[in-house]
Write a structure and sequence with these properties.
This protein is mainly α. Helix content is 65%, strand content 0%. The radius of gyration is 18 Å and the shape is globular.
């Protein structure tokens, strides 16, 4: 007898709703990053809506040297730890550029969209 690896714990409606909410949160965060990149003078702020290009725009906005290299390194397992540290430094530089406290970055894991909204419009 074969056992199929399927779960019937949730209805299709609840998973569809969760997907819609996730998409809304993603686009809200991308829109706020778009506005932040505009404030920082990034050449193509619309990169915020495309995942890997958004990382490139982050490095550009944070005035990191060679943002293309750091974006590529961010996609390589184990090496991406150094790129993440560089990305945090880039966000600190972005906070300084837009005159916001870098200490707010500590709240990003729990309140990322709210913090990005504050950075974009606050």
């Amino acid at each position: 007898m074969f056992i199929l690896a399927q779960s019937s714990s949730g209805s299709d409606g609840s998973s569809a709703l969760a997907n819609i909410i996730s998409i809304i949160i993603y686009f809200a965060g991308a829109f706020f990053c778009f506005k932040i990149y505009e404030k920082c003078g990034v050449e193509n702020p619309w990169f915020a809506f495309i995942p890997i290009l958004g990382t490139y725009a982050n490095f550009q906005a944070g005035d990191e040297e060679n943002p293309l290299l750091w974006t590529i390194l961010a996609c390589i397992p184990c090496v991406n730890i150094a790129a993440i540290i560089k990305l945090i430094i880039a966000w600190v530089n972005i906070c300084k550029k837009i005159n916001k406290s870098p200490w707010l970055l500590l709240l990003m894991p729990c309140f990322s969209v709210l913090i990005l909204g504050y950075f974009a419009y606050g």
